[in-house]
Design a protein that fits this description.
This protein has about 190 residues and is α/β, with parallel strands linked by helices. It contains 7 helices and 5 strands; from the N terminus they run H-H-H-E-E-H-H-E-H-E-E-H.
């Protein structure tokens, strides 16, 4: 049986691009304001999280970007730096502020693999970040939607637009795999 290739194959669209377009369509069903750039930045955040896991850090990656491209990126580095505030989001915000030479990041977006905790959500509000896109809900410390809504609290002087979860399965598997391996080897963060 000789079948005609689908329209996207006839037009020369690669399998990788088809997959990205499929993920974009799925992401837009839940989060209307996402575009292809947001998914590419989330892909980069996942790569950073994988690198953090290889360094025995909790696998969380963050990328701050705007229409001009990536401004700053970071992964958790609490173990390596000995800094309790070494969360990927906080490190990325510091780097972005230094690079742009300003503390207001209202024209920027943050893609992060795990819903920000209260400390990170507070930093997002204080940096006047435009929006955050996160990979997976955090049932123990999520401060954007799951446990708290710090980024949308009307009592604060700024609100951050939040989209998520995005690429939830991939981000969840990364975190679960990391902690499963830690329990198996009895290494605690």
């Amino acid at each position: 049986m000789n079948r005609r290739p689908c329209a996207s194959r006839r037009r020369g669209v690669t399998a990788r691009r088809r997959n990205r377009l499929s993920r974009l369509h799925h992401a837009r069903l839940c989060n209307e304001d996402l575009d292809e750039t947001d998914l590419l930045m989330m892909d980069r955040a996942v790569i950073l999280a994988m690198e953090a896991a290889r360094d025995n850090e909790v696998p969380v990656g963050a990328v701050i970007y705007n229409q001009d491209g990536i401004i700053a990126e970071a992964a958790n580095n609490r173990e390596a730096s000995g800094d309790p505030s070494g969360h990927a989001e906080v490190v990325a915000i510091r780097r972005a502020g230094r690079k742009l030479d300003r503390w207001r990041l209202s024209d920027c977006s943050l893609a992060v693999t795990l819903e920000p905790c209260p400390m990170c959500a507070g930093a997002l509000v204080n940096a006047r970040l435009g929006r955050v896109i996160y990979g997976v809900d955090d049932p123990k410390a999520g401060a954007c939607r799951t446990l708290y809504s710090i980024t949308d609290d009307s009592r604060l002087n700024h609100r951050v637009r939040v989209s998520g979860p995005v690429q939830e399965q991939q981000c969840r598997q990364l975190l679960r795999g990391f902690f499963r391996d830690r329990r198996r080897n009895r290494i605690l963060p």
